[in-house]
What does this fold into?
Amino acid sequence: MALRLPRDAASVPLIRQMLDGTLRSLGVDPQVRDDIELMLTEACSNVIKHAAPSDDYTVSASVHDHLCVIKVVDAGDGFDPRKLEEPDPGSEHGRGLQIMRALADDIRFTNRSEHGAVVCLEKRLRYSPGAAGQHLLTT
It folds into this structure.
C-alpha cells in the first residue's frame, strides 16, 4: 500500500488507521500493531514538523515473510540522525527518533539529494493463532 498524503497533521490518523486495519485483518498480534502504529505516527509527525515546506509526503507499507516495511518519504533536505542531540530526561519533545529506534527491528535514514529524505522502518510480525496472514504471506 502506498499513499501520497497532504503535509497536514490530519493525515497522520488516516494512514495510521488504514495500516492498522490492514494488519488487523491479517491477524497481526495487537502489541505488534501498537508498536507499528507508534513508529508510523512518530515518522509522519517528524515530516510534518521538520521537513522543508512542501505540499505532501508519501507513506508506503508492505508485508512479506513476516516482516512489515514502512517507508516515509518527504521532500526535505534530510538530516543526519547521528548529529541530533539527545533530549533532556524530562523533555516532552524530541523523543521521536528514540521511540522509533526502540520499537523497530531495523531503521534506516536515507537523504536523497534534491529528492527528499526516506525513513525506513522494519518490524517482525507475530500473528494471533489461526490468523490468515501467517499462511497467505509465506508462499
